[in-house]
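Notes, Module 5: Reading structure tokens.

Key idea: the token line is not a picture. It is a compressed description, and you learn to read it the same way you learned to read a sequence, by spotting repeated patterns. We will look at two proteins. The first is printed below with its tokens.
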Amino acid sequence: MVESRSENLESRKSKALSFIETNGPSLPMKIANYLKTDSLIVSAFLSELLKEKKLKLSAMKVGNSPLYYIRGQEFQLENFANFLGSKEREAFELLKQNRILLDERLHPAIRVALRSIKDFAFPFEHDKKIYWRNMKLPQEQAVEMIVSKQSQRAREGKGDVKDREEKPAIFQRIKQAVLQRDELVEKGLETRYQTEDVRVKGVEVEKKRTEFIQPRVEEKPLLVLKQEVKKGKVKEKSDFVFDVIDFLEKREFVIREELDFKKKEYFANVKIDSQLGKVDFYCIAKNKKSLTENDLMQALQASNEKKKPVLLICPGEPNKRATAKLQEIGNLVFFERLE
């Protein structure tokens, strides 16, 4: 009798393995329906198969249940990617498309999501940096791709490795603003800020006083910042704010001080190492579909109050009037589109 039950159990286990071999990663309920057996009994012998290492268990869940699969069926788990949460699905698609992602360059929410989709995203370290590789890309090949890309940049670039990386276009605009200082002085305009001593490629750069266009404004301030936060309430940063912070980091801006932020706005003091030294900016970010002339006038007013140029970040493009205005004040208000 005992032998008969044992044989019956082994038969069911064999049929379950055969079902998974044929159908790929499967839910316990489907296996139970195929075997016409109670799901609790099926779960019991599936656990035995896991202990015997004849089956593997997915980290992701479809509903409340993981998937059972046989070694070699890992890639078939992609068929269930639509059951991932929204952020996890976004991270999955991003990694699938790029094959390799550098952790420090990613949005914080995507970093968290990658750590939760263990069936599809695999971390590894190279040059003391954390990377993520797609499940179909072996680690050795991933490292080869990174080294190959770095070598290609080295052949195309000049100077040290760090200098070969693409620099923000804003560097050229800063340089142009400095070269135009004589013209600005002739117009009787007066804002000044001072760069700091820095070393560029081992060469000492002297302190320079840079003069920018700044019309005298006698009107009441158009921009008022509320920097006080009520005690006992912790403000949470929106996705837009995280996107702005990530945008700044990727373009080598250093956030010196966060002044205020709202769901669709962000204010901070930032700096960047340019060819002319360290340049301070007052950063204003707005989540708007279109940038208006009034937005630019507010930024210009802020530049006058803060005694430094403004870095204005917005996902939308300036409208026609704003574009014309930006050409007039482009040495004080630097517009960057948030992509």
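Here is the second protein, with the sequence above and the tokens below, as before.
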Amino acid sequence: MRFQTKMIVTYTVFILLVGVVIALAYYGYSVDRYVETEEKNLEVAAQQVVNQINELIKPMETRTRYILSDSEILDSIRLLSVAPQSDIDEAYLYDARDTILRGINIDYVMNDFYRVVLFNPGGDVVSSRTPPPLATRSVAEFEEMPWLAEADATKGKPVLISAHEDTWGVQSRPRVFSLLRAIQGSNMGYIEVQRTVESVADAITLPGENMEVLIFVNDGELLYAGGTAAQPAAYWAALAADGAAPVFRAEVEGAGKLVATGRSAAYDVTVLVAESMAHVQAGSNSVAPITVGIAIIFCVISLVFVLVASRLLTKPLRQLREVMEHTRLDNLAQERRVAMPNDELEALSLSYQNVLGRLRESIVKEKQASLLQVQAQFDLLQAQVNPHFLYNVLNVIAQRGLKNGDEEICDLCASLASMLRYSTNTKQRYATIAQELEYLGQYFYLLKSRYEHKISFAVEVDAEIHGQVIPKIVLQQVVENSINHGFANSTDHMHVRITGAREGERWIITVRDNGQGFAPGKLEEIGAQLAEAKARIAQERSAVELEIGGMGLVNTYARLYLLFGDSLDFTLHNCEDGAEVLLSATWNEEGMDDVPDHGG
């Protein structure tokens, strides 16, 4: 397939994918904005209903205040509260009831409220609705009014009573809601102002035809349910489960609802305005045709641009291809320039020239590398000859010792040969802790032969960690550092103790001596060297081990860090009677590919 064709196909697929992604993103964004708009509309509608219901309740509260602020009415209420009333002239009682009736039976009350009732425990009832069919009971049925206890508890504050059947009606008992206030004083009674539930429907207007409204009072008591709202208990349960979110989603009768809340702190009224999620989804679907149209326009314009641009871009590339096809090893030194119409393709032509120059340099370097590889192989063979020579010399010494009846010389030569064989084995760079302890035992034997009773060792390493893999000659290097530096200026008895165990997911080995410890400032110096080695390992991991050089603590740390990384804990510190080196890392008994089956 031609490059131009590939370019067109590639960018066509890319444009289609981008078009789909943009269309989906735009559709998702538009739907989210539509839903957010609906949520805002519901919030506004809920607050609007809160204001409207407040406008219904506030005059009811105002009316109770007006009645209680009228001194004549209040004196009449006090007179009726006196018990027994048989001690009072009936004319006075009649005047008191008439005064109360005139105070509440005015046009404002008649037109604005369904009923205003004053009653007391003594049986007096004065109502603004007396003619049929709105006649009022002359006796209060207290057992039908359980909310009186709540009114008494509020000590004169108004109590809003949810929708209920009118308890005062004689011929007609419509559903009403009330504002009740207990009059403070002994047997003073109560004032109840009623509105019909139908008046709520008349007062509430919603901006959307498909919206449902529910009004609750006193933490869940239904006052009004309008529209197609059903299952008010389910709405209230969903509100309680969702918390104080202004808008939430609920499942009511198997249908999804988007619900906004509004609250009136003055009257403990909660308004829920809901809309069916199906209706919201249907409205958001109108975004789909616009999204498809935008995606089609974008793809068409982009494809036309790709066709034109591909023809212009591929012409100089074809010229460059022709130059490259005529490039050979015998004409690498010749400069071949191609006239390019823009800086990018000009840079490509220059890059091709640079590639030719680097190719020439690479050919020279490859020849040099071949020579170096041959030299390295020769050095490796030479290095393998030297250990064999040492083995032969040790065998000769051992035979001479055996000939002279000195078995100790034979044992020393055997230990030294075993250590030499272990340390010069270049095929394996890692060993288990068990193999390291075996190698350390040979080293201890040689040291004991040298220092005799002046040195002693103790090895207490749990068998559980013997299978852990570590770099070779780590433990011996730490012990050797303790001997060489811990007892450099001391003639006291030398004791080295090696302990090891597993703690959780980590293995731990400590090497402790009774020497003179690290010199002042030495710990800081070694710490700085370890930090430098760690930084160099992070930057030059492949060659840092060779560059550090030596077989001291820094080299030991570097080799451990290369194997265990940041899980390594390499700690040095002084004790009361010497120094201690702690090695620890994450437990891993899987091993390395180059660990031998035995110590040799």
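Summary for the second protein:
- The longest strand covers residues 255-264.
- Residues 70-201 form a domain with the Beta-Lactamase fold (CATH 3.30.450.20).
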